Predict the structure.
Amino acid sequence: MKNASLSKDATLSGIEDVFNNNGISVQPNPSSGNVFISGNHLNQAQVCLYDIQGRLCLSTIISGDAMLECSNLQRGVYIAIIKNNEGLLHKQKLVLN
């Protein structure tokens, strides 16, 4: 896996397609609307979507499996980052079309 960095202005670089060692699923991908998140350790997890310029486009807290409404976001490539209070759980490229 490539190293990834997140600069002070939230610019993402070197993101591999998926970082997931917790059995978390973000589907469908690509998506044209709703995105479903399921898996382990999602109680009080923060979900953030960043665009390819590193701007935060969506941030929410979920408790367990959840559905994200993404139809109000522009089409494009996003980075989905899911964390809980123990740290990073999942990172993946998400395509909205």
Remarks:
- The beta strands are 5-6, 12-13, 18-20, 25-27, 34-38, 45-51, 56-62, 66-69, 76-84, 87-96.
- DSSP finds no helices and ten strands in the chain.
